[in-house]
């Protein structure tokens, strides 16, 4: 019998004897100290604690656990620098049982298996730890609770760090100038966040709601990393859905969800990756995690999209795009150097309704018509994208009409009618009022197959009186309802329609991927994706939609996805966010948005910018200069009619867009120039000297008059870094990186010689990581391949591996 099997047998033996009485005693012992107090996320009272009982290596992060499984050290193993926030240690893994957090009091290691247990509480968690070199995975392979106890949630951490310089909320990475610590959720059910129900655990009340000062919305609800007054936290959880649960949304409204049948509903299988790395190698580690753990790995020009310059390419977002004017639209796009047309005829896209997502007449009325539109766009040298509203369900969609509406629409709490409701009644009476609480959009109820809007509600004696009913909403029919009939609150979306539950989310993921596969559409926005969370399923709902669509979509290269929210569970699949509109959103906010993008290893984007024939060249080039300073693309909101009517003036504006983006994408601007571009008080004019290769850059004053002499801007000749690579030591973790002088690099390859055995070159990032196996002096040549007509570059390197 192996060590892992013996550990399982021992834990089962004492677990059976623990009993419910021991659980009640243990729950009192391990109650969480209120947030902010000493030990608020730390070891249980009375637990034996030592400085270090066990050490885990996760890349360059050394995680020290005491004998109770409490994290007592987070150390940069290269320098010995500690990063555990003072007085803020917590259990590496714990459970919520019967509504209370219960922490382990003992941890044992048997090979790759760590058993966290609390004998008095009667639980054990077996965690399989696998060292992958640059990162380590932790997977809960067995979770056993006490007899009769309800094991509701498995919590990872939080890991409390003293790092505050950069907190990448969505990606789950915190870093300073010298070190980065990351936590990535590895399954859709392992949510990179903290449950809204447990505000008193894990210092959750101290975690900033919107540290990045985003205008679109706070992201803390879906974030693996959080900022606190004393540092930062990294955390994840998995909720048990083997039975029906009531989950709390961000506003505290309780929504019943589940159950999920089979293994999908269990917390066993919850899995995260942890790592420590130098900040500049962090993208390489993240790439390795995504590849190694089979997470979504979309590419642009064959390169992982998180490092691809093409991920920030600009779009022409058109309000009047139709199949018939695609050639004209393509001509305008190419005049601006833009390769994507994007259809946005209204707030929801070229669809008859959101939900079933059938094309309207603008793009042919069906999938075959849309495929024809895509082919026409391709023949004219551009790709086609369309807008979506995720799982917003329109009130005229077949999920709602004709009656009866789909039973899988998301519903909140429910109650029973205490009196019959006749067809013409405008007041109803319920036996409870929880469903009427604030915290969801609109005031809509469902009784049987009828939707009813209401104006107000109040408690009268033992019943709740709901008044101001508007009957037969959303195409339903007014009908009589008997006393005792179930009445449910409808979870509405921000536009007044419904939201799909998990079954409908799966339908929509299947429908969207079918559309992309059948038609060849190459871009979409998951606008309103937070609705998949508002259904009660949190970031798991978002992952089910986004990752489910990605998994079924055949095209993995060149497909651009935007989003209204960036959650930790969808970070891998999504290309970018592009929030706000210059002119409506302040430039200050655009800079804040781009700071968030940079912190989360996302491409820079200015947002969706209004572009009209009447716009002044001075104004357009001012925006393009900000984009160049941030290395940010744009979604240019325009119409074919307006730009075509603008004649030569439009062509001048479009050419300005082309020149600025062309120079930005090849890295023609110096760092000093980009710093000047980020000054919003400056104005600029860029003129092509040799198309695609050389430009003249002139600073202007507010009237458009020249300031100083023009500057020459040139496309750099691609070169690889020539600095010697640092030496390595046999069997020790190694990391370094080769770089180029242009963002147009799309591939790094070893074309002669070889890296030391045990090291690997990441083709997408240029990072070199691994553990060399023996002393050697390895010589090799790296080739860097480029787009935009730039030549390839090569350089010779040596890595010396010492004993």
Automatic annotation (TrEMBL):
Q: Identify the stretch annotated as signal peptide in this record.
A: 1-37
Q: Which Gene3D superfamilies match?
A: Immunoglobulins
Superkingdom, taxonomy of origin: Bacteria
Give UniProt keywords alphabetically.
Signal
- Keyword Signal listed? The answer is yes
| Annotated protein name in UniProt | Ig domain-containing protein
């Amino acid at each position: 019998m192996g060590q892992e099997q013996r550990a399982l047998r021992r834990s089962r033996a004492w677990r059976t004897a623990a009993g419910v009485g021991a659980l009640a005693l243990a729950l009192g012992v391990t109650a969480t100290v209120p947030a902010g107090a000493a030990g608020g996320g730390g070891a249980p009272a009375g637990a034996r604690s030592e400085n270090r009982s066990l050490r885990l290596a996760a890349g360059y992060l050394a995680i020290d656990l005491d004998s109770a499984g409490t994290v007592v050290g987070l150390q940069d193993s290269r320098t010995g620098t500690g990063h555990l926030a003072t007085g803020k240690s917590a259990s590496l893994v714990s459970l919520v049982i019967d509504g209370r957090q219960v922490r382990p009091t003992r941890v044992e290691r048997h090979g790759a298996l760590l058993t966290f247990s609390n004998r008095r509480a009667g639980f054990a968690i077996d965690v399989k730890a696998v060292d992958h070199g640059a990162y380590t995975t932790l997977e809960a392979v067995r979770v056993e609770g006490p007899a009769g106890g309800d094991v509701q949630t498995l919590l990872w951490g939080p890991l409390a760090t003293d790092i505050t310089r950069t907190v990448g909320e969505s990606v789950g990475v915190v870093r300073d100038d010298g070190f980065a610590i990351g936590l990535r959720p590895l399954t859709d059910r392992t949510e990179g966040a903290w449950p809204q129900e447990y505000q008193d655990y894990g210092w959750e009340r101290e975690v900033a709601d919107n540290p990045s000062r985003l205008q679109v919305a706070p992201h803390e609800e879906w974030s693996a990393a959080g900022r606190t007054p004393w540092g930062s936290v990294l955390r994840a959880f998995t909720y048990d859905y083997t039975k029906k649960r009531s989950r709390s949304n961000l506003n505290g409204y309780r929504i019943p969800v589940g159950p999920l049948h089979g293994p999908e509903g269990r917390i066993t299988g919850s899995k995260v990756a942890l790592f420590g790395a130098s900040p500049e190698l962090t993208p390489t580690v993240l790439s390795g995690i995504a590849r190694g753990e089979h997470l979504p790995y979309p590419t642009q020009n064959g390169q992982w999209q998180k490092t691809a310059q093409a991920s920030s390419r600009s779009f022409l977002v058109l309000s009047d795009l139709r199949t018939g004017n695609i050639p004209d639209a393509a001509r305008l796009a190419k005049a601006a150097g833009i390769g994507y047309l994007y259809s946005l005829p209204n707030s929801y896209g070229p669809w008859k309704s959101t939900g079933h997502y059938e094309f309207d007449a603008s793009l042919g009325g069906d999938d075959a018509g849309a495929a024809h539109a895509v082919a026409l766009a391709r023949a004219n040298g551009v790709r086609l994208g369309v807008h979506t509203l995720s799982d917003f369900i329109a009130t005229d969609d077949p999920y709602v009409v004709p009656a009866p509406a789909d039973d899988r629409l998301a519903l909140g709490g429910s109650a029973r009618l205490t009196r019959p409701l006749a067809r013409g009644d405008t007041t109803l009476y319920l036996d409870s009022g929880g469903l009427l609480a604030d915290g969801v959009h609109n005031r809509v109820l469902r009784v049987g197959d009828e939707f009813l809007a209401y104006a107000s509600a109040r408690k009268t004696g033992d019943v709740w009186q709901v008044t101001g009913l508007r009957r037969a909403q959303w195409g339903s029919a007014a009908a009589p309802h008997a006393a005792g009939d179930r009445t449910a609150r409808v979870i509405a979306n921000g536009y007044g329609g419904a939201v799909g539950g998990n079954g409908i989310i799966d339908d929509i993921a299947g429908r969207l991927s079918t559309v992309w596969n059948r038609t060849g559409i190459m871009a979409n926005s998951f606008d309103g994706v937070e609705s998949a969370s508002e259904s009660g399923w949190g970031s798991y709902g978002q992952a089910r939609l986004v990752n489910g669509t990605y998994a079924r979509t055949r095209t993995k290269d060149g497909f651009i996805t935007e989003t209204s929210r960036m959650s930790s569970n969808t970070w891998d699949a999504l290309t970018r966010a592009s929030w706000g509109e210059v002119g409506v959103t302040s430039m200050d906010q655009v800079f804040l948005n781009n700071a968030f993008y940079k912190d989360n290893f996302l491409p820079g984007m200015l947002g969706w910018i209004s572009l009209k024939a009447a716009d002044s060249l001075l104004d357009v080039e001012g925006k393009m200069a900000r984009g160049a300073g941030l290395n940010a693309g744009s979604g240019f909101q325009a119409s074919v009619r307006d730009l075509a009517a603008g004649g030569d003036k439009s062509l001048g504006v479009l050419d300005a867009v082309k020149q600025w983006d062309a120079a930005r994408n090849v890295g023609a601007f110096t760092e000093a120039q980009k710093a000047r571009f980020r000054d919003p008080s400056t104005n600029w004019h860029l003129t092509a000297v040799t198309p695609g290769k050389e430009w003249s850059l002139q600073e202007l004053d507010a009237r458009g008059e020249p300031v100083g002499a023009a500057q020459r801007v040139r496309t750099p000749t691609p070169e690889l870094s020539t600095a010697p690579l640092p030496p390595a030591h046999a069997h020790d973790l190694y990391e370094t990186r080769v770089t180029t002088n242009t963002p147009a690099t799309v591939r790094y390859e070893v074309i002669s010689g070889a890296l030391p055995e045990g090291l690997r070159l990441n083709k997408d990032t240029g990072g070199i990581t691994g553990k060399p196996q023996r002393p050697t002096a390895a010589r090799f040549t790296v080739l860097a391949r480029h787009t935009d007509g730039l030549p390839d570059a090569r350089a010779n390197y040596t890595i010396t591996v010492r004993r």
